[in-house]
Amino acid sequence: MMKEIFASLALLALTGCATRLPEDGGRKDLTQMEMTRRSADELELACMERRRLEYRIRNQPGCEKIKKQFMADCELFEKKLKAEWEKPSDYAGGSMEPMDRNERMTALVEKRIAELRTKWLAK
User: Fold this and answer.
1) 74 Cβ partners below 8 Å, 6+ apart?
2) Which domain holds residue 117?
3) Residue 112 has pLDDT above 60, yes or no
4) Which residues does 42 contact at the CB level (< 8 Å), separation at least 6?
5) Domain assignment present for 2
6) What is the pLDDT of residues 73-109, one digit of tens each?
7) CA 20 to 30 Å from 15, out of 28, 51, 77, 95?
8) In 3-state terms, what secondary structure has residue 94?
9) Domain contains 60
């Protein structure tokens, strides 16, 4: 019986089945450049969704009634977006500054997306 158990354990060790996974689940840590790139990609995706919703709103039936108000609202948001872009970062001059700016901009755009869906998009 002991020989069978020993043989089974040796077989498991030889085939790699008893190998332990790394503590991080096999993921590697991201570099600052990779995190900045991901934050830029998330911002780009959020902006694409915002533009898609704005297009849908401009082309929905009955949009003539809200067009003037909607365009004014879009202009106001563009001013907020520009102000957020120009706002100094807590990480000014550091390698985290671009990522910080991207994340703040993404949060603002996501808030705008929610507003577009609830306030302007016809049900």
Assistant:
1) 54
2) 30-84+95-123
3) yes
4) 102, 103, 106
5) no
6) 999 999 999 999 999 999 999 999 999 999 999 999 9
7) 28
8) coil
9) yes
Contact yes or no for 112/48 (Cβ under 8 A): no
User: Is the Cβ–Cβ distance between 99 and 37 less than 8 Å?
Assistant: no
Alpha carbon distance 39, 14 (integer Å): 43
CA gap 71, 60 in Å, rounded = 14
Degrees (nearest 5) of the Cα angle 102, 114, 42? 25
User: Does the pLDDT value for residue 18 go beyond 90?
Assistant: no
**Residue 62 counted as domain residue:** yes
Dist. CA 75–CA 112, nearest whole Å: 12
pLDDT at 7: 55
Asked if residue 106 is part of any domain, the answer here is yes
Average pLDDT over residues 23-36: 75
CB 114 within 8 A of CB 94: no
Number of domain units in the chain: 1
Sign of the torsion formed by the C-alpha atoms of 63, 65, 70 and 72 = positive
**97 neighbors 89 (Cβ within 8 angstroms):** yes
